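Chapter review: from sequence to fold.
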Amino acid sequence: MGRLTAFYSTLVGKKVIMAASGAILFLFVVGHLLGNLQIFDGPERLNAYSAFLKKTGEILWAVRLVLLAALVLHVVASVQVSLASMRARPVAYAVKKSIETSYAARTMIWSGPLIFLYIVYHLAMFTFLVTGPGYSPTDVYRNEVLAFRVPAISAVYVVAILFLGLHLYHGVWSMLHTLGASNPRYRVLRRTVAPAVAIAITAGYIAIPIAVLAGLVS
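The token string follows.
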């Protein structure tokens, strides 16, 4: 425990924890997308998937606790890394050049909190069923269709997913860098994989409300 604490006290340790916890959250984002894309297979398929998850009981709650722990670690480590970076550079450059960075990287400090706020809203609507237009605890397909038929709900969802895409773009690049792919010869690979993954996930999530609004899913 003492070695772990000493490791985390370093900036490298915080970055490793941030990358590792981010990897766990990334796997959830991918898994959640694959599950929700079953809406295109019809209500029986999506509702059966939802019922299966609920039947796992303790396993589902264990996964939720792991995700919650990963989220807390990710947020805490990212805040500490950001504060350390600001302390190391207290005076702004007269002319700032962005080297190996991007708009996504520079907005991570904003996209993260915005995504977190949307997660709370999303859980309230689809998991705890405390908001939304007459939701059913068993008919997930109907819940999603009813929600995304409301243009305002779909718009908020799309904006949140766009922020998620920005966050993933830099997050995947940074995660690969921190967890081993830091050699300059992997730079092209990181620059290719990160946007491809971010675009694919963003497009997958946004396809759902668009399909509902277009009447392709009803």
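Two observations follow directly from the output. Residues 93-101 have pLDDT under 50 and may be disordered. Residues 2-91+100-213 form a domain with the 3 helical TM bundles of succinate and fumarate reductases fold (CATH 1.20.1300.10).
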